[in-house]
Amino acid sequence: MMMSQAEIPVIAIDGPVGSGKGTIARQVAEALGWHLLDSGALYRLTALAAIKRGIALDDDARLAELAAHLDARFGSDAEGGERIWLDEEDVTAAIRTEECGAGASAVAALSPVRDALLDLQRSFRKAPGLVADGRDMGSHVFMDAGLKVFLTASPQERAKRRYKQLNDKGIDVSLAALSRDIEERDRRDQERSVAPLRPAEDARELDSSNMSIEEVVSTVLDWAAGR
Ligand code: C5P
């Protein structure tokens, strides 16, 4: 029997930069055999598309138009690694730069852009279930999610993780500059008037500073199973 959209279960995992939500969301989705939404990638794609077309990152109307018609495709390569295409161009690495992250945070502060991305985000909700990773998955996009996790970690730990992540990808950054970028992005994400980064009222908070990835994943899976 076909499930209606509302019957398809969602686990929302929100949190700030470097909280580990991307990794956790991916592993929880794999463990359950559910779909995955990396909503940050959509904001990054919007920023990248704007930069490529020379659209100013505060031009609400044109950015919203761009976001509403993003030609984005998510897939994987032969080794199972994640691949993302924009206008048929492989932008997997391009959207992960700090420049694109900062651009994403700028366009994400505009409510017409957030509205334009709503339907696209909700279209990821497919059977048997969805794990959605972002800032406002539990508080806005999937308010009816059965489990909402707000993942945090200390600022130092988050900067360290992000540093390692970028280094592993061969992207050269300084830890000090990264800490500053993270602080700036957190501040903007928390202080913006539309969909600010904060836990949904019914979210369960999890501080992962002193936890391994495995521990965080199994905690989320336990919560999902209602244990
Ligand atoms: O998670 P990621 O670092 O890829 O997100 C990039 C930026 O996109 C964030 O700093 C935030 O400003 C924005 N974002 C958002 N809402 C989401 C996901 C990301 O505002 N659901």
Task: Explain this structure.
By secondary structure, the protein is an alpha/beta fold. The protein has two domains: 10-32 and 130-221, Rossmann fold (3-Layer(aba) Sandwich), CATH 3.40.50.300; 35-127, P-loop containing nucleotide triphosphate hydrolases (Rossmann fold), CATH 3.40.50.300. The chain has helices at residues 21-32, 39-53, 60-68, 98-107, 111-122, 137-141, 155-168, 175-191, 213-224; strands at residues 10-14, 35-38, 72-76, 82-86, 89-90, 130-134, 147-152, 204-207. Helix 2 (39-53) packs across helix 4 (98-107), helix 4 (98-107) packs parallel to helix 8 (175-191) and helix 7 (155-168) packs across helix 8 (175-191). The radius of gyration is 17 Å and the shape is globular. The mean pLDDT is 92. Bound molecules: cytidine-5'-monophosphate.
Calculate the mean pLDDT score and round it: 92
Unreliable segments of 5+ consecutive residues: none
CATH architectural label of the largest domain: 3-Layer(aba) Sandwich
The gross shape turns out to be globular
Structural class comes to: alpha/beta
Write down how many β-strands occur, each being a DSSP E stretch of 2 or more residues: 8
Corresponding CATH superfamily of the largest domain: P-loop containing nucleotide triphosphate hydrolases
CATH class of the largest domain: Alpha Beta
CATH fold title of the largest domain:
Rossmann fold
- Radius of gyration based on Cα positions: 17 Å
Helicity range of the residues? 40-55%
Amino-to-carboxy terminus distance: 28 Å
Give the helix tally.
9
Strand content: 15-25%
Oligomer: single chain
